Each structure stands twice: as structure tokens, then as C-alpha cells.
User: What shape does this take?
Amino acid sequence: MNVERAISVRRSIRKFNSRPIGDEILRKILLAGNDAPSALNNQDKAIVAIVGDNAKAKLNEVVKNNSTPETIERITARLNGEFNFFYNAPVLILVTSSNTLYPEADCACAIENMYLRATDLGLGACWINQLTKVNYPELKEFLKKSGLSEDYVVYGALAIGYTDETFTTKEKKNRIIVVR
Assistant: This one.
């Protein structure tokens, strides 16, 4: 698949099957995020891929314990009463940065690169914002155990995996303005 095609067929997938993602495919996706641009080329972002069931369950519990009732209701409604903020995807990727210049933009570029690479490789993905700029003590501890320093914050996450569903791409609204 070429970049233009990946951009046009990309969509949010929230229904994953349990098929594991191979190490080489995961590596390609993570490298796409690592190769993303950054403000002033500071390259400060750190990408944490969570593949272990225990780690994902622990993080899911942290998010549930710190979510509003409305968020819990919205997520459980999509998953037949189960709370799983990453939709049971086999891999959850956290994109983090310290307090450098424009960390939100740096992390967004990394997420979009990984999103498109996952699409290119035949996987589904969903951009997740439940962890955006939160400072739950349990999340900080999780990041610390992953090897990051205290000043790293999650600016976005990406759930990736295979899906059995066939999805059509919805027509995108055209909000393009050209000024000459």
C-alpha cells in the first residue's frame, strides 16, 4: 500500500481480535513513530509498547479508577459492559515526552506515523486520548517502571491489532480552503 492509500483508507478501529502482532511488524510500526519529526529536532519523545496482558490489565485498572462516570459508561457501552479503554487490542502504544517545546505536536506526529504504518501493514488502529496529559500517581509509577524519568507525560496512545470486521471508509468532510 502506498502512503496516499493508507491516508485515505485509515479509520478508527475499536474491535480487535486476539491475533498477536509479530515482533517484526511491531518493530516497523514503532520505527515509524520514532522517525516522526519533532520541534527543533529535539527528538525527546519516548514510545512505550505494552504487549503483556498483566501490564495492559494493570494500566486499564488505573484508567478506570481515575475516569469519570461518563467516560466509564461510554467505554463500557461499546464493549458490552466491559471497561477496556484500549478496546482489547493486543498492543497499546503510549507516546510520551518531557516538557520540551511543543511535546503535543511531536507526539501527535509520532502517533499519526504509526497509525498510517499500521494501516499499511493491514492492522487496525485507534488513537486514544484517555491518558493525555494526566498525572495519576499510578500512571507516573507505571512510566517510571518502564524506564522513563518523572518528567515524562503521556500525550497520546494508539491501540493496534488485527480485526475480523470489514469496515468501509466514511467519506471525509472537505474543509480545504486555498487562498491565493
Summary: The domain at 3-161 is CATH 3.40.109.10 (NADH Oxidase). Strands lie at 46-50, 91-97, 124-128, 153-161.
